[in-house]
Amino acid sequence: MQGDSPPVVDETQPTPPSAGPEPAVVTKPWYDPLLSFFSSVHVAVVTLIILAAISIIGTVLQQQNIGDIEANLRLFQEFFGDAGRAQRAFDLSERIGFFHLYQTWYFYALLCLLSTSLIVCSLRRLPLTWRIMARPKVALEDSGFRASPNRRSLTLRLPRAEAAAVVVAALRKGGFGKRESESDGALYLFGQKGAYSRLGIYATHFSIIMIFVGGMLGSVYGFKAYMQVSEGETSDQIQMRGDNRMATLPFKVRCDDFQVDYYPGSQRPKDYYSRLTVIDGGKETMHERIEVNSPLQYNGIWFYQSSYGDTGRGLKARIHVVDIKTGAGHDLSFSGTEVTEVPGTGVRIQLQRIFPDFAQDEKGRPISRSNQPKNPVAAVQVLLPDGTSKLAYLFKHRPDLKTVAGLPVDLTFVDFSSIQYTGLQVVYDPGVWVIWAGCTLMVFGLWFAFFSSHRRVWVRLREEDGATAVVLAGNANKNRESFAEEFERLGDAIHAVGEARG
Predict the structure, then answer these.
(1) How far is the C-alpha of 358 from the C-alpha of 373, rounded, in Å?
(2) What confidence score (pLDDT) does residue 465 get?
(3) Distances (CA, A) of 99 to 77, 82, 137
(4) What is the CATH number of domain 136-194+453-501?
(5) Residue boundaries of the structural domains of the chain
(6) What CATH class has 206-313+421-442?
(7) Interatomic CA distance for residues 24 and 36, integer angstroms
(8) Rounded to an integer, what distance in angstroms lies between the CA atom of residue 190 and that of residue 475?
(9) What is the rounded CA–CA span in Å between residue 362 and residue 397?
(10) Which residues lie below 8 Å from residue 315, measured CB to CB, with a gap of 6+?
(11) What is the pLDDT of residue 8?
(12) Could you give the count of Cα atoms lying within 13 Å of 375 in the half-sphere of its Cβ?
């Protein structure tokens, strides 16, 4: 899994057998086939393909912890065009676990298989990689110098000790470390840099495993839920997504205030936010103003602003009334269903109900499609002086629309308010920090794996007739074109300094 061209000398190759007694037969351990299976690239690729296919299915079908799985039945009905076949496909998918894919045993098994493959593959190759990094071969054989893709021969008119000092200075200036050894009357120097870039692929492997572990921790021990708290009230009850069961938080949340900002001249919400207080152990431990994309976090549990609406309680409304005969106008305030008299007219008005989002059902009965003030309508009972009464519907956005004619007063729905509730998405994911740590490690691992390289230089110095013959060889496991240029500059620098001193 680690791309690398053969180095100048391959320390991993076994020493050619010498003449002597025939070696004993080596018996492979019983677990060797298992190691070969898990370290196979084919196993890793096939596992990734299956995981990708599962992810596609999980994207197309609604998952139980995300949305309404009944939408899947409608999807099957559209696909098959037959209710019976759609129902059978729905039932089969439910039994297989397609509606909660990321909590199925086979999804976890595939993650474990891929993680095991990465671990085994890394552990089998890590000792060799570490040996190349930590115990490089300093004295390179003649065949190694000849086979090197980057090699250069120089003659410095300097004693060997001075020539070695020139080479060492050039290596250090280029960022290469220095090791040396002597053999057969020749001095060997070795320098390397970027050795730890070889660990980038292992860091990437480990980061993938960390992300898997973090995801499973969140899936097994985390939850997503919904919480509704009215203004001025306190609650610790949450409704779990997927199975709709109720659960209790280890602390309480109070909504001190909720406000909505609308775009000028419309009822389209521009922003909405809640002021929350956390009460833990009977003490107020935290105050926070939250809005969309600005959550509250307490003890690892996140509270996101997700919805809002009117509770219908604490209703307050304002209606402007004009006496048609005199033209006198009056603003009447209502805080419930009490009867309020219009001064000088003998007409009394009783507020019946507020429809925040007025609509009619299939039988023509008035309903509210939602608790959002998209189409507010006030239903008022107009009690006339003759003892009769009429029910009028007042449209806030259409004051010209009159549902009752012949009234002695003109009614206009001005505004209304009531106790609102804030809808909070509650999320607990103990694996999120493991995932973030894995993502951070992956960035560093990929950087070292793809944008840095292990560069090595071997030098042999042998004194001949008062001068020193210098042979250089170099190798990089990646970005070889760049290293070839660096290698040439290194040789030029050694040659220039040697010429100047010689």
Answers:
(1) 9
(2) 83
(3) 16, 21, 57
(4) 3.30.310.80
(5) 32-124, 136-194+453-501, 206-313+421-442, 316-415
(6) mainly beta
(7) 23
(8) 12
(9) 23
(10) 334, 335, 336, 351, 354, 416, 417, 418
(11) 45
(12) 11
Q: CA–CA separation, 444 vs 153, rounded Å? A: 38
DSSP state of 408: S
Task: Tell which residue, 471, 483, 453, has the closest CA to residue 143.
Answer: 471
Q: What is the pLDDT of residue 251?
A: 95
Long-range pairs of 95-102 with CB within 8 A, sequence gap ≥ 24: 98/57, 98/58, 98/61, 99/61, 99/62, 99/63, 99/64, 99/69, 99/72, 100/63, 100/64, 100/65, 100/242, 101/54, 101/57, 101/58, 101/61, 101/63, 102/58, 102/63, 102/215, 102/219
Q: How far apart are CA 183 and CA 153, in angstroms?
A: 19
The pLDDT assigned to 22 comes to 61
The stretches of 198-291 forming alpha helices (DSSP H) are: 200-221
> Which residues in 75-140 belong to E strands, given as ranges?
none
How many CB atoms sit inside 10 A of residue 402's CB? 15
- Find all residues with CB under 8 Å of 221, minimum gap 6, and list them: 430, 431
- Return left, alpha or beta for 367; rule: phi > 0 is left, psi -120 to 50 is alpha, else beta: beta
Q: 180 - beta bridge partners?
A: 189
pLDDT at 302: 95
Half-sphere exposure of 351 (CA within 13 A, CB side): 24
Which residues of the chain fall below pLDDT 70?
1-26, 65-68, 265-267, 312, 502
Inter-axis angle of helices 480-501 and 160-173, to 10 degrees?
A: 140
* CB under 8 A, 24+ apart: contacts of 235-240: 238/426
How far apart are the C-alpha atoms of 460 and 482, rounded to whole Å? 23
pLDDT value of residue 237: 95
- Separation in Å, CA 393 to CA 13, 206, 383: 92, 66, 14
Residues in the chain: 502
CB atoms within 10 A of CB 59: 10
452 contacts: CB under 8 Å, gap ≥ 6: 194, 197, 200, 478
The token duo for 265 is: 């001249």
Distance spanning both ends of the chain, measured CA to CA = 48
Q: What's the CA gap between 317 and 413, in Å, rounded? A: 8
Do 420 and 309 form a contact (C-beta atoms < 8 A)? yes
Q: What is the DSSP string of 220-232?
A: HH-EEEEEEEEBT
How far apart are the C-alpha atoms of 127 and 130, rounded to whole Å?
A: 5
Q: How far apart are CA 371 and CA 369, in angstroms?
A: 7
Pairing relationship of beta strands 301-310 and 316-323 according to DSSP bridges: unpaired
Q: Report pLDDT for 498.
A: 86
